[in-house]
Structures are given as structure tokens and as C-alpha cells.
Design goal:
Elements: H1 2-23, E1 39-51, E2 56-61, E3 71-76, E4 91-99, E5 102-111, H2 116-125, E6 139-142, E7 147-149, E8 157-163, H3 173-188, E9 197-203, H4 211-221, H5 226-232, E10 233-237, H6 240-249, E11 254-257, E12 260-263, E13 266-270, E14 276-281, H7 287-295
Parallel strand pairs: 8-9, 9-10
Antiparallel strand pairs: 1-2, 1-4, 2-3, 4-5, 6-7, 6-10, 8-13, 11-12, 13-14
This protein binds copper (II) ion.
Length: 300
């Protein structure tokens, strides 16, 4: 899981670094020429420290398949241009070349994405509303650029969660959306819940997640009959202030960092009476659990 995560982070900065790498290639010291017998391994890990003068970077790396176990060690890295990016905690991915007793890193891809453990920290700080708390009539803007307000869902259960479309962490927003797909499937297949549950994914990145972006994102998760599906499951943002208010109410903290949003996770059921039923923290809740909670609700 961790490997996938680093990989995705790296992909995001790959293009940028390629451009940067090319434009600066004139002043880049040439890495040693590897012989035909050189072996190459993928290294992924976290930068511990970097020493540009000596061209060394200390990396807390994952297992290097076929070469060594996970550990913290120093590697030779000759590309000067990359040192500006090598802040402690940055994610790094590179190819380790082992050639006639010498080793060095090639093709480094660095992402200064905040440490995913930061995301975990945001989980602890927010305070959720207690069950029974009346939900204010928040307003947002959905994927069709239509204003929506929480009151319009009265009479139905509202299952909401927070995401943002560019989220690169598979265990976070993409998982929430995948879970919603599953909940929605079970709800539609359940006569007691069909048409009684409305799903709402709220973006914490309203500057980027305009209606069109949300619509495209939603379409990825909805079935073929999208017109009907968007009626059951909306994707919304709004002004930064509108989003903030909803998030704060549900105890969700988030803040932008570079082109990412550092955020916790909150998923909540608001009952047909507009009162909070339950708030799930983090990413460990299961679709079945939510469906069970939905089944306990009384619909008039
Ligand atoms: Cu996310």
C-alpha cells in the first residue's frame, strides 16, 4: 500500500521534474556511464537528509526487491538540480545502479508532498457533532452548477463524505468514492432503502473542483445510466466558505499544501429529520456497516 502511494505521488511531479531536468541538463554533471553488466533496482523511500556538497542522500527506503531489505542508508546522487527538492520527509523514487562495485541513483523523482502521516494527524484534531445534533441548512453547488441546500434532503437519509478529485492517496478519497459506489449498489438493491438514501461527496478543493470537474470525476464512479445516478449521488463544492462550514461542522480539518489538500476523512449519516445520526472517522468504515446503520433509520 505504501509503495503504491509513493508511486502515485511521484507520478504527479514526474512531468514537472522532467521539464526541469531537461532545461537544466546543460549544467548537470554527467552520471557515471554504467557498463552493460550493470544491475538496476527501484528504490522508494523518504529523504532523511541530503548533502549536496558530497552528493549523498540518506533515504529511509522500502525493501529494494532483489537487493536489500528496508532500511535507512546513504546513496550517491549526482544530479545537482534535485537537491533543492530533497527536504527531509520528501518522497523519493529512483533507480539504483549497481555496477562493478559502485552504486548510485539515477532518474530521481522527488515529491515534496507532505508526509501521509500528516493526514493521520488531521484525523485526531476535529470534533464531530454528537448524534442528534441538528444539521444547519448548508448550501453548496453540485456537479450541474446547481445550488443545493441540506434542507432539500429532509425525508431521506443523507450520506455524505469529503473528497477532492485530485487526491493521489488511494486509501483516502478514491477509497471513499469506491465505498460510496458499494453503498449505493446495496441501497439500490434494498427495497427498504431504495429512493430513501441520498449520497453526497463534498470536495474540499473548491478552487479546482468546479462543477465540470466534479461531473467528470463522478462519472468515473457512476454506472452507465449517469443521469439517474447523479440523482442518487451528487458531487458538490461551492465557495471556499461554504465548504469550510460544512467541513467544520462534521469535524473535518483540511488545508492546502502545494497542489494538494491535506485532509482527514469524515463520512456522516444525517437522518431524514436533519439530525446527525453517526459520523465515521477515517477510512476504516465498511460499506456494509453504513448500510446496516441506514437500515436502522425510521423513514416516515
Ligand atoms: Cu484525499
Amino acid at each position: 500500500m505504501k509503495a503504491r502511494l509513493v508511486y502515485l505521488h511521484s507520478l504527479r511531479s514526474l512531468c514537472l521534474l522532467l521539464v526541469l531536468g531537461l532545461s537544466l541538463s546543460a549544467c548537470k554533471p554527467a552520471p557515471p556511464k554504467a557498463s552493460d553488466g550493470a544491475q538496476r533496482y527501484e528504490v522508494k523511500g523518504k529523504v532523511v537528509s541530503a548533502d549536496q556538497a558530497n552528493h549523498k542522500v540518506k533515504i529511509d527506503h522500502e525493501e529494494i526487491k532483489g537487493y536489500m531489505d528496508a532500511m535507512t542508508m546513504e546513496f550517491t546522487l549526482l544530479e545537482d538540480w534535485v537537491y533543492g527538492e530533497l527536504k527531509p520527509g520528501a518522497q523519493i523514487q529512483a533507480t539504483l545502479v549497481v555496477d562493478q562495485g559502485r552504486t548510485w541513483l539515477e532518474n530521481p523523482v522527488v515529491s515534496s508532498v507532505a508526509d501521509p502521516s500528516l493526514v493521520g494527524k488531521t484525523e485526531e484534531s476535529g470534533v464531530e457533532p454528537a448524534a442528534g445534533t441538528e444539521t444547519p441548512d448548508f448550501t453548496l453547488v453540485n456537479q450541474d452548477a446547481k445550488k443545493i441546500s441540506f434542507k432539500q434532503y429532509r425525508g431521506q437519509a443523507l450520506l455524505l463524505t469529503f473528497i477532492y478529485t485530485r487526491c493521489p492517496l488511494p486509501d483516502y478519497c478514491p477509497l471513499m468514492s469506491q465505498n460510496f459506489v458499494e453503498v449505493n449498489k446495496q441501497v439500490q438493491a434494498n427495497p427498504a432503502l431504495q429512493n430513501k438514501v441520498h449520497l453526497l461527496s463534498i470536495s474540499v478543493d473548491p478552487d479546482f473542483d468546479k462543477p465540470k470537474v466534479l461531473r467528470t470525476y463522478g462519472a468515473r464512479y457512476l454506472g452507465s445510466d449517469q443521469a439517474a445516478a447523479f440523482k442518487q449521488w451528487e458531487f458538490a463544492a461551492g465557495s471556499a466558505e461554504e465548504v469550510k462550514q460544512v467541513a467544520q461542522f462534521f469535524g473535518l480539518n483540511y488545508w492546502p499544501e502545494k497542489d494538494q489538500i491535506i485532509h482527514g476523512l469524515r463520512t456522516a449519516i444525517v437522518g431524514p429529520d436533519g439530525k446527525v445520526v453517526r459520523v465515521y472517522r477515517g477510512n476504516e468504515w465498511k460499506p456494509e456497516e453504513v448500510v446496516k446503520d441506514l437500515e436502522k433509520l425510521k423513514f416516515s
